[in-house]
Amino acid sequence: MRLAWTDICLSPRPNLSSALTLLCLLLMPLHAFSGEDYTPLDDYLQQHPEQTALMAQFADVVSGPAVALTQPQTRPVRIAIIYPAFQVSDYWRLSIKAFEARLKELNIRYELQVHLSSLDEDPAVLATQLQESLDREPDYLVFTLGALIHRQLIETILAHKKTRLIVQNVTTPLQDWSAHPPFLYVGFDHQAGTRLLAGKMLTGSTRPQQYAMLYSSHGYISQLRGDTFIRLGNNSQEVRLLGSYYTDNDRDLARAATLQELDRHPDLNMLYACSTDIALAAIEALRLRGKLDQVLLNGWGGGEDELEAIRRGDLDLTVMRMNDDNGVAMAEAIKAELEQRTDQVPQVFSGEMVLVTKDTPEAELQALTVKAFRYSATQ
Fold first, then answer.
1. 290-307, pLDDT tens digit by residue?
2. 134 and 210: one domain?
């Protein structure tokens, strides 16, 4: 028996004393977060070769049909989710839909509490959401690592021994957590997706490529998507970075940054966008300057809005995630633990990604869409 959606969203008033205590801890100086803190997925698999086969076996389970839970449940599984879903990208909302749909197919009884926020949410709000979630003593808590404040929040969760942590949209294990890792890292590898984009954007041009980097917020996503692209571009003498901007994933800031760069550099012919929201804002700016057909622009993720922009020809290419894989993987990991098969759950699950462009045939786009949203499109 699961909670109704209204019960999930309209949760009781939190324990303010506990929330304030947690907030005081979070307002202590932040630990630095650098590229040295996490292990790229390729490096992680070299260090832990046994994980390669485990990941492949688990991927087969995720892509295959649901097999109902065999272990009787004494009570519903308690799950809490805290997601930065207040953005144009539908990744987070569809993740919840796919997660719940697979749980139901697996015949897992559960109670779900969901908190939604923005990527750069006020730390006080996030602290209150986290404290309220932990006060309910969930079996699993699903969170992400998009900004610096998220790291301290996650370390608070890891210290809460009774709750298993699923770190969503992260596929690079953090070295500081290796002694007591999360239950599961799950998502789509940002560096692998960036390499797909770079393979198309940085090669095959008959003219020098001069571009601007449109970052999201300071932190994990910008490092793995943006800095990775810059490093790949630095390998070519024909590629020149003209400027870079942190936009906080805000469409107004992203549009203003794009307009400024277009005005400063009339010879700019490429933009790298680190998220869906940024890409859509860049389209608006390019349209205002009449340069939609002159500047190469990418998306990131291949959600509904990006695919529509691809079909219109406003967006040149994107890396399309098989979106529902992440929600299915979380459900299957929980099922494995309920059946006492935790040794069959890899430390990391990274879903499939495919490069699509404005030249991709409509029939192929349709087939990929059906595959990517096989659960969430019907919920």
1. 999 999 999 999 999 999
2. no
